[in-house]
Amino acid sequence: MLYALRSDRLMRNHIITVSAVCVGLVTALFGTNFFLNYREMQTNELLSLWSAIALLLYCLGIYTTALLFQQLSKQELDIEPSFLVLAGVMGLLVGRLLIHLYLSFLTSILSPGVILAIFPIALFLSVVGIHTACKFKRRKSSRNILILLLRAIIPCAIAVPLMMVYNNGFPGVTASAEIRQQWAEKEFHRYTTIVNSFKICQPIIDRVGNIKFIAPYYGKNYLIYDLGSSGDDGKLNLEIIGDKGVGIANLPYNQFTDASSVKLTYQNKTEQLNCRK
Predict the structure, then answer these.
(1) Interacting residues of 229 by C-beta distance below 8 A, sequence separation 6+
(2) How many other CB atoms are found less than 10 A from the CB of residue 272?
């Protein structure tokens, strides 16, 4: 009987660990790009921001999963979601630290192979940490001050930075086109060139009329670049407001060229237009 009980507890810990890690990874994988929109940045800035957001979303996935298991459990003593988050993060950080300590004796240069090796090692230690944390049960209605603080601080520590990144200055697509255009002219250093090239693009003028405003809209609006390099990656989804109507333009965006070819949706019809005809 005792063996069966221990076996059930161990199996439940396995299920919680696998579920928490999988949900955390899926949340980080599919949610990160959502927070990288409406901005222009260098590649190293992107990697730093991506890593921070991915870590926060990973924690969010762990916390949400653990909280769900705790609420569904009928036991008074059960897993503590805060412990799982802390253990998962500590595992990632220890894994990364071990790799860097190892590299410090060899080279200061991180090769792509070593960078790829950091992730599975750190993830394995994170899984071990979460599984270990599952063994430390707490009362659901604990009055321990430290536990109550963790239960309050950890969700805030996850939510607040995500909200700050999401509200990175972009006024939102519900703001007026004039305000969104003014924001874009400050954020994207070649945005004015794009706007000016659209204002003299005859195929667009034929459809929407004389252009009043061109502003970022729903969809991807970003530029990632390296200083001193011609390689960059960017996209724009723009609301083009003319005196005859409104169109939605989709086009690749880079540092050096103006808009020449654009996919325009106007009156429920999408066309590929060439602005250099």
Answers:
(1) none
(2) 10
Query: How, if at all, do strands 222-225 and 232-242 pair?
Result: antiparallel
pLDDT of residue 27: 95
Closest C-alpha among 170, 177, 164, 172 to residue 239: 177
Per the structure block, which two tokens stand in for 268? 């429920």
By percentage, how much of the chain surpasses pLDDT 70?
A: 87
**Whole-prediction pTM value?**
0.81
The 3-class SS string of the chain reads CHHHHHHHHHHHHHHHHHHHHHHHHHHHHHHHHHHCCCEEEEHHHHHHHHHHHHHHHHHHHHHHHHHHHHHHCCCCEEECHHHHHHHHHHHHHHHHHHHHHHHHCCCCCCCHHHHHHHHHHHHHHHHHHHHHHCCCEEECCCCCHHHHHHHHHHHHHHHHHHHHHHCCCCCCCCCCHHHHHHHHHHHCCCHHHHHHHHHCCHHHHHHHCCEEEEEECCCCCEEEECCCCCCEEEEEEEEEEECCCEEEEEEECCCCCCCCEEEEEECCEEEEEECCC
